[in-house]
Amino acid sequence: MTTVFVYVGDEGQKNLETGIQESVWGWKPGVVEGKAHLAVLQSLRAGDYLVLGSRGLGRISAEEAHGRTAEALHITRLTGGLYQDHTTVWEDETYPYRVPMEPLDVWEKARKDDLGEDAWEALRRSACANGAAKRAEAEDSFMEKALTKVLGGWEQELAQAGQPTDAAGDADDPADLGILELPPATDRLAYVRARTEQKALRRTKLAGRHEVPCDLCQLVLPKRLVHTAHIKRRSVASPTERADLNNVMFACVLGCDSLFEHGYVYVDADGAIRPSEPVASSTHLTTAVERLCDTCTAHTDASADYFAWHRHTIAHVS
């Protein structure tokens, strides 16, 4: 796993906003071509981390940087490696050397102690090199701090909600029941961030209820038997879509969650639950689908586009 740090100054703030929104970051040819920076970018792979530091440093000495504060730190995870593309993303220039990424977290008012000395120095060196991507000498130190911060924030949210402050698992969340251990270190920050986001959505959607109806079969079940499932998969949803409660439905673990997840059933434009084509050739699948209700209670005008995505992309219904 590799983590690189990029500094974005005052003039790049609009580009930073655009890059985060479009899930891509780019560099000018002059910052890449014929420079050691190119080898750094070529080494990046999906699963590596790109940390974008906003304002506060600039072309200053290491000693002067120690007392500075970065306005914001955007932690992103790469979804692919370096590629070249000249299509328009940013208004001022093309920035053809690009990496695709997904935003994970934002730290406001970050200082050296928040990142660790090596990561802070990498960010300063990037500021001195026109925003070139720089590695920290001790990458593990930054990742440990990032994990600690995410877990600490989640535990604080639990405490404020009057819940047990155990961020590791929840006996009433079926998504936690099959988790035996954390994923490999390369995926750990993204995994923890995703789980904390999902738990926050689940808590909001449950609204204190201990029993909820499945949106597909409409059985009222204990909450531990009901998933809070994204309609448009989280892996392809934008940050806004991932946090949208209209993109979340209740799907029970008695079969509804899996039938919907794998596209054996879909919700049509009128909110009716329909079997997809593979169901017709299986008596057992047909039996499983027949226990579902006629309509999906999660289908509304606000969720219709999410169900349309699932219908076309997962169930392959045109």
TrEMBL record:
Name by which UniProt lists this protein: HNH endonuclease
Provenance organism: Nocardiopsis aegyptia
Lineage of the species this protein comes from: Bacteria, Bacillati, Actinomycetota, Actinomycetes, Streptosporangiales
